[in-house]
Design a protein that fits this description.
Layout (H helix, E strand, L loop, with lengths): L1 H13 L28 H4 L5 H4 L10 E18 L17 E13 L2 E8 L4 E4 L12 E16 L4 E19 L11 E22 L2 E8 L2 E11 L9 E9 L2 E9 L4 E10 L6 E6 L3 E4 L5 E11 L4 E10 L17 E11 L4 E12 L3 E6 L2 E21 L1
Antiparallel strand pairs: 1-2, 1-20, 2-3, 3-5, 4-5, 5-6, 6-7, 7-8, 7-9, 8-11, 9-10, 10-13, 11-12, 12-15, 13-14, 15-16, 16-17, 17-18, 18-20, 19-20
Length: 407
């Protein structure tokens, strides 16, 4: 029981340990709809609207005097496990563990002086929900895993010259995680109650950015997001109140990895823009997890640093309409042998399309769609007396819309 309890506590802390935007893992890059059509290529350089507060706060120096951005994203991941089913345990393969999620964003940017801009972002940098059939073969390892975050991001930008701008922001984050599984308490007919772990915490970090207008047609952006430390305080509870040993506090200290992005925006002509980006994420910070509370144990983890590559193009078809396209590739931070059914993630290839319709001189509507092809993640997970050996059929669909108002 204590090994399983430790694994759940580790998973709870892991739920807080994701980074920069739907790069592999369960961070959410969906911080605007204006970038989705380009597969988020060039976001640290494009400075298209106030969502640059998240991607590179220095980009606020390219915005109008006052701007509000409201965006929403419908995200549908699919994760269907297939593999060996233990006849002694029973149950099926769990069905589709993915489900629809709505992710909102909001941003406000204001020019204080010709050279100083301030802004405020409200978004959800990390999110996850997987839920299997309650009696699936892996019910002793995972049934439901859900993570919610809220991030408040006040920022400032300074235009140092006609070609160079700098920006900085503070990130104040709240996270909540809920995990469930079935906990066997011995050989049949011993009870198998549903165990639930829930915890939350606040953390803070910062983001920095620089934007260089290298030529009249080319901008280069560099952005950095810091680590964020969490101490998750949680409690476990069970569907059988008579099982007292399963009820108690759990604490886990974790560090959310830092990341850095290098982006290029190039205006090829009056009608065509080209965008490119590479983003590094320091997942190797998550090499082990010390647990304190009901169980005191350090669980080794073997996550690796990853890169994300993206390319995009925008065609300004007319004064009112622009069309976008993009491709991207996210490396996977975890191998088959270290992957768990709570986070059945793999490397991803993005294909994205989108566009913009200018409603008036003050208002703009952006929209986008992306399909993510996920390399079939393998699973070799042994825990709590059960072994899951197989692979997932996975993909992700994203549909986004955004309204921007200058006033």
């Amino acid at each position: 029981m204590s090994h399983r309890f430790n694994r759940l506590a580790a998973s709870l802390a892991l739920a807080a340990c994701a980074n920069h935007a739907h790069a592999a893992g369960f961070a959410l890059i969906e911080q605007n709809a204006s970038g989705l059509g380009n597969a988020y290529a060039g976001q640290a350089a494009v400075a298209a609207d106030a969502s640059t507060i998240f991607f590179n706060p220095a980009g606020m120096t390219y915005l109008p005097d006052r701007q509000v951005v409201l965006a929403g994203h419908l995200i549908k991941p699919q994760a269907e496990f297939s593999g060996t089913v233990n006849p002694d345990i029973g149950g099926g393969n769990g069905g589709d563990a993915g489900g629809w999620a709505l992710v909102p964003n909001a941003y406000f940017a204001l020019r204080l002086t010709p050279d100083v801009h301030v802004g405020l972002g409200l978004n959800s940098p990390f999110g996850l929900k997987t839920e299997y059939d309650p009696e699936w073969v892996g019910r002793y390892q995972a049934i439901k895993s859900e993570v919610k975050t809220i991030n408040l991001n006040p920022s400032v930008a300074l235009k140092l010259s006609d070609t160079l701008s700098l920006g900085a922001g503070l990130n104040i984050q709240w996270i909540e995680a809920v995990l469930t599984h079935r906990q066997p308490l011995g050989a049949p007919p011993a009870p198998v109650p549903l165990l639930k772990i829930k915890g939350d915490d606040y953390g803070w970090g910062y983001n920095l950015g620089a934007l260089w207008q290298a030529t009249p047609a080319t901008r280069i952006g560099l952005a950095y997001r810091s680590e964020v430390d969490y101490t998750l305080d949680g409690a476990s509870s069970t569907s059988d109140p008579s099982v007292a040993p399963l009820n108690g506090p759990v604490t886990a200290e974790v560090t959310m990895p830092d990341s850095a992005s290098l982006s290029v925006f190039h205006k090829l002509s009056s009608r065509w823009d080209l965008l490119a980006d590479v983003t590094w994420t320091g997942w190797s910070d998550f090499d082990d997890l010390p647990i304190q509370g009901t169980v005191n144990k350090t669980t080794p983890e073997n996550w690796e640093n990853i890169l994300r590559y993206s390319l995009g193009a925008t065609w300004h078809m007319s004064e009112k309409v622009s069309l976008r396209g993009g491709v991207a590739y996210d490396e996977a931070p975890v191998s088959d042998i270290d992957r768990t059914p709570r986070i059945p993630d793999g490397a991803r290839t993005w294909i994205a399309v989108g566009g913009q319709y200018r409603l008036s001189a003050q208002s703009v509507l952006d929209f986008g769609y992306a399909h993510l092809f996920v390399n079939d993640p393998g699973l070799q997970s042994t825990d709590n007396g059960t072994t899951l050996n197989g692979e997932y059929s996975s993909e992700v669909d994203i549909l986004s819309a955004q309204f921007t108002l200058n006033f």
